[in-house]
Queue: 3 jobs
Job 1
Amino acid sequence: MSKIEVEKEIKNEEFAADNLTESMSEESLTEEKESENVEATDNMSEELTELKDTYVRLMAEYDNYRKRTIKEKADLIKNGGEKILIGLLPIVDDFQRALDTIDKANDLTAVKEGVELIYSKFNAFLKQNGVKQIESTGELFDADLHEAVAAVPAQNEEQKGKVIDNVQIGYMMNDKVIRHAKVVVAN
């Protein structure tokens, strides 16, 4: 072999060795990437499992909350008037005592005073619970507060459009009309 052929042979072997080294380093890089991908996949899988668990727990908590609020709402509707009814019981007791004494009473004024006391006690109870009477007589007719049951001719110009008689008292509860006052209006 000539010197040139030997040099070519050496270059070919060096080239082959370089290619072999490159191919080995590419294989090791590929293996490292695959190892990293497997590790990343495992991490994502763990994270996904944690997120699913958190989601399931939140849904269960929400479902329990929803059921609890529905039950509480039903209890409020069922027993909402309990406070009012408990407040009315002493007034009912007073009426019972009044009825028991009416037959035995000789003094009509005493019976009348007793009934007036019960009436005032009942009105005080209504006020404590936000219920108040609608003042009507002498006021201008207001369709939001009053219901006209009759109209009579006005005796003078000042009375026109005003309420001159209250047939049935109206009531408001916390600034909301719960019963309109039935009134007679002057035209």
Job 2
Amino acid sequence: MIRLAQASPNHGPRRGVSAPDCVILHYTDMLCPEGALARLCDPAAEVSAHHLVAEDGRIWSLVSETERAWHAGLSFWGGERDMNSRSIGIELANPGHGNGHAPFPAPQMRALEGLLREIFARWSIAPERVLAHSDVAPRRKQDPGPRFDWRGLARHGLSIWPEAAEPRGEGEILSDPGAILPFAARFGYEVGEDLGRNGRTPPDPGGHGPQTPIPEILRALRLRFRPQFPCEALESPADARDLAILQELAFRWPSA
């Protein structure tokens, strides 16, 4: 790993916690790492991350891990809404969804793996606490996207990969898509303020309460654990495999 330092002014003190307990992975959605570096260090942009990893394996450290970087925005995981205060943000240089979901090269992944091992050692962070930006902000974000190798990261003990996520076809469409919600909530996803009387059925979308975002949860789940899904299929109805994945995630790695 080639380590570089360039301080970003975009940070502040952590709020309500003394140390980070998770990592959030992003892609830059820009054409070159230098452009992303400039933006992450621009006071006018009001965004930052603790680290930026280039495609060739260079790592810039921009904000001290003891400080609160500005990378997650409006976010939620496991009942927590200020994910910036709880997390270490890592930006991966990648052109993003607007440029064909480019793969993440091997040197970049090796550098990320080394960086995560260091972070785990410094802060005692568990593999299940390595999250996607799309996990914590599914209504707004889809990074690091379907080309990121979560399964490979899990093989190195740096993330998780449920057995139910192994390719086995789509499975039967669920007659009640709300069946996924208790398991999604237990794993950490935001499921809305009201799960309905039976704990599963979404509230009335006609204005009688916040609608549970089943499509957003499915998109986040599939981006991470069913990346063989073509992007245009991310909005397809919930099926038995989605439910099986969420059940395993909920009982093996509950966030609460």
Job 3
Amino acid sequence: MGKLICSLSLLFITSSAGAQRIFSDGNWGATLAGAMVPLPTFTLGVQPGVLYKISDRVSLLTELTIPVVKNIGDNSGTTNQKYFRIQPEFRYHFPFNMRRNNIYMGLRLSYAIRKFEDADGGFYSDVTPGFDEGYYFDKAQVNSPIMTSSLQVGTIANGNKKITTDVFWGFGVRYINTEYTDVVNPVSGIRNRPADGPLFYPSYSYNRAVTWLHVNGGFRLIYHFGR
């Protein structure tokens, strides 16, 4: 899978470089957005992308997500953090405008590499989420790739400006397949629950494949070539 991601990334970069020659036709745009990177502690990331107008009604957006900060400090309890995401989005733009905004719906797919070392120890479970049986450990390597599929709705400011704003939101499913390796001192037990209420357990605390609800939203800037 790593070779596949590298190949897709190389294709993305090569296509983007070749597209420089035809940006003047007005069908291309460069995008930039912020992102929350789901490492053990949420980290801010940057999300550059390329937008291509296939027709008057259809466009394709491809984005990469890269953490701004890698190997967060000792307070996170993790080291050797690695994260990279690629996400294409196919869009249909409606033939009507509302208050000079362009409305669209889209299908977004994404694949993210997520790896880190849990150096402070913790707890993971091999059973279905909602059950508390599992293992305490002192240290482990965690490989937890993420795939998502979601329906998107958004609005892009119209006009002849070089820079426009794209506001979007969406929902779908998130598939996480986590594997714990090089586990140090695993001890079977029951997960401790707080006495004063429920506790949220992250997706990577399950040593198995899980499917969760996926929700996203935000805004991006688009620079339009050829306008």
